[in-house]
Amino acid sequence: MDLETVEIEARLDERTTYPFWTFNGRVPGPFLRVRVGDTVEVHLKNNENSVMMHNVDFHAATGPGGGAGATSANPGEERAVTFKALSPGLYVYHCAVPPVAMHISSGMYGLILVEPEGGLPPVDREFYVMQGEIYSEEPFGTAGLLTASYDKLISERPEYFVFNGHVGALTDHYPMKAKVGETVRIFFGVGGPNFTSSFHVIGEIFDRAYQLGSVTSPPIEHVQSISVPPGSANIVEFKLEVPGRFVLVDHALSRAERGLAGYLIVEGAENKDIFDAPPNENASGH
Ligand SMILES: [Cu+2]
Q1: Are the C-beta atoms of 128 and 109 separated by less than 8 Å?
Q2: Rounded to the nearest whole angstrom, what is the distance from the C-alpha of residue 286 to the centroid of ligand 1?
Q3: What is the CATH number of the domain that holds 153?
Q4: Cα–ligand 1 centroid distance for 229 (angstroms)
Q5: Distance 142 CA to ligand 1 centre (A)
Q6: Three-class SS state of 206
Q7: 113: closest CA among 43, 42, 35?
Q8: Shared domain check, 94 and 11
Q9: pLDDT at 239 over 90
Q10: Could you give the number of structural domains in the chain?
């Protein structure tokens, strides 16, 4: 695996930018996928234009720091660590340079899937969603380049909550798309660094949820919302029976007013036995 840590000013919202710290220039970092028993060789390069030291701690690794010590790299340096993926599951990775909460809230988190022998059961579509918090000096909705607030970070008072690093990432920009009759799987993780997500898809029921990212325990079935703590993940699977727009939220819904929402747009034929909704001019788009 090649990872590069990059510090970039990038869009947080339509009129707002933020000084993100990233793996490979994106939030979350790349979705990494290995098989149980694999030996994973990680090369972490810290871009020469960085100001900070960065590293990577893999929750999928067994060993001190999850590799954080071995991969700590000053700007322009490259470091490496090798670990054997002993346990299947869906795991978070993140930068662990102190103050760790600062590096995570700046965007330095991602997921690594360690597939069990034989892999996961096939589905029609897979999606990758992570939830994070942004702590800016400026209040939510301020235009221009924001400044990270250490005070708000350590007192756990975020201004923004985001799916995939950006207000509107999964609504205006890259809504998830699927068709009636398909089965979808969402790899959902919380980078945080601080808030547990009550992840829910409005108008859907998860057929299966692999609690805390465990793929060797039986999934729970037919659940509405799942609780995903920071530094953890879950896999949900569900079959799409009817068309329409399904909204991904954290059911702590105040956070929807601070940027947290995503769309799953399902196309296909109506199935009025299952859901029959006459047009209503009072409907607000849901
Ligand atoms: Cu970092």
Answers
A1: no
A2: 39
A3: 2.60.40.420
A4: 21
A5: 25
A6: strand
A7: 35
A8: yes
A9: yes
A10: 2
